[in-house]
Amino acid sequence: MLQGQPLYVAPSYDFIPLIYTPLYYYLSAPVAIATGNIMVAMRVVSLLATLVAFVALYAIARAYGASAIASLLAVGLFAAAYPITGFWFDTAKSDTLSVALLLAAIALVVSLSQERLGIVGLASILLCFAFAAKQHAILFTPFFVFHLLLQRWYRMAAIFIISVMLLFIGFVGASNWLSEGWFWFYIFTVPSAAPWLIDQLDDILGQLWADYWPLLVMLGLALAWRIRSRSWQFSSRQLSFISLVAILAGVSLWSVIKLYAYLNHLIFIAAGLALLGAKVSDDVLLHDEPVSWGQRLIHTGAIGLVVIQFAVLGYDPRSQIPAPEWVDEGYALVEELRTVPEPIFVPVAPYLLAMAGRTTHFHGSSLGDLNVLVQQEPEAKAVYQPYIDQINAAIRATRTAVLPNARWFDTTFNAERGYVCTPLNDGRPLLPPLVGVDLHLTRLCVRE
């Protein structure tokens, strides 16, 4: 973008677009121009988006009747989910921007006490902006409609649907036309080809239980409280709240079990559980003073569970600060890349080539997405396999490669093809990511 190039183009060795909508890049570009550092610019946008998400989450909790203290508790629980979501709140990724815009749209709608067409129109714009940051946001459209229908605001529900449809069709249509069809390919065709790994669901649910069991036990106490008071009727607000938590959880679980998905998709369910924590805390802790021994037991146990929940979610923030030796080792590799013969292939960290002043190329994950497409959809193979073949031919022609611990390219970069591979950094992990992925650079392969 900073070079004036289009984002969505035919795949090539030079560039394969990521499978995300473009708003995050457009917002990061002016910050990058101002700071002179692309990575810092993208992280600044993510950090600001996270702060917006905190404010929106507080507003949502308040709109559903949570006290100020419980609403702050929701923000705290969401912030404490930093490691659970793969330390994604401040990374150079589009997730937090999309979540912030989505939560802001939700906050606007659920805070309404009377029909206001302007607010609903603004919420529809924010929802489409959230989609323009990452596609998942559009899946929340049914919640907005359901909430408005629960309030018997039928005209506003119709206007919201029409607004979202017009904005969505206009944005997607214009983007697809300007990119000669490549926008649809990268935003819809490629992601939809990735299969669901249903077997992973048990592991994900087990991990969520391990991380949130105190909150889930509190939910059980709140249900016991409701049973004891014989309160079985739900208001429209309560039904709206239940549907919001359900769709936040559903979108997370639907996304995280896709092939190549990662923990960042748990951001939605983390927000839902944070809101649930606020409501449960109000139901159990902030009601009238308990009078019976059973109520006192539930009340005291809930206080302890709140404390335990934060202890379970606790983490050492120093884990997200690169050690000085890591930084030095990274810059040493950049200096080495200045001298090795081109073309150079660094599949998981092509930005190192830009730092070294060498010719860059696509990111390896994007080629992986294309490979999944042609493997899963035979009809697509005839159309897109030639692009993949050209990219693979360019990879085989490279003189130098800096490879990760994953063995994806062992059949290309080996002694039989004339490459001499030596361990980097005396065999110690080089440039390990801080987001929990076990992926780091291990070896330098050069063909003379």
TrEMBL record:
Keywords: Membrane, Transmembrane, Transmembrane helix. It comes from the Bacteria. The keyword Transmembrane applies. The keyword Cytoplasm does not apply. The chain crosses the membrane at residues 7-26, 38-61, 68-89, 95-112, 119-147, 153-174, 181-198, 210-227, 239-257. This is Glycosyltransferase RgtA/B/C/D-like domain-containing protein. It comes from Chloroflexus islandicus. The lineage of its organism: Bacteria, Bacillati, Chloroflexota, Chloroflexia, Chloroflexales.
